Amino acid sequence: MRRPGPGPHSPGGRARRWGADDGAGSVLVLGLVALALVLVVAVASLGQVEVARARAQGAADLAALAGASRLLAFGEVGSSCALAGRAVERNGAVLDGCAQVRAGVLEVRVHRGTPFGAATAVARAGPASAREP
Fold it and tell me: What's the whole-model pTM score?
């Protein structure tokens, strides 16, 4: 007499198929998890670049204000740009350019490095009377 045990038929009487699609659900889940991880990394990378851009803009804004204040007080572009450069360095960025674009208006260009390239920013500062119409 034959003992009951695991065999090709399930207890309900239906035949169990051992086919090519066994484990396909696991592969699908692994693929979806991998896709989700890639998306998380991409979003985190974009966030990192945006933070670097915002910090570069903050450094440029502060440097332009500091430099323009000195420019208005002393009228010297060289010392104004030197002060702007120190402000940029203290904020973790690199000064790319500093110039007087009109009377009393200083423009500062900076960048901050990221693993994906440089985040750049430009800022201008000066008296309200020097605004463009």
Answer: 0.72
* Burial class, 66, CB count within 10 angstroms (exposed 0-12 / middle 13-18 / buried 19+): buried
Residue extents of the structural domains in the chain:
29-127
Reported as a single tens digit per residue, the pLDDT across 72-84 is 999 999 999 999 9
Would residue 48 be called left, alpha or beta, if left means φ above 0 and alpha means ψ between -120 and 50 degrees? alpha
In this structure, what token pair is assigned to residue 76?
A: 């010297």
CB of 90 closer than 8 Å to CB of 73: no
CA-based torsion, 47, 50, 52, 55: positive or negative: negative
Q: How many C-beta atoms lie closer than 10 Å to residue 107's C-beta?
A: 20
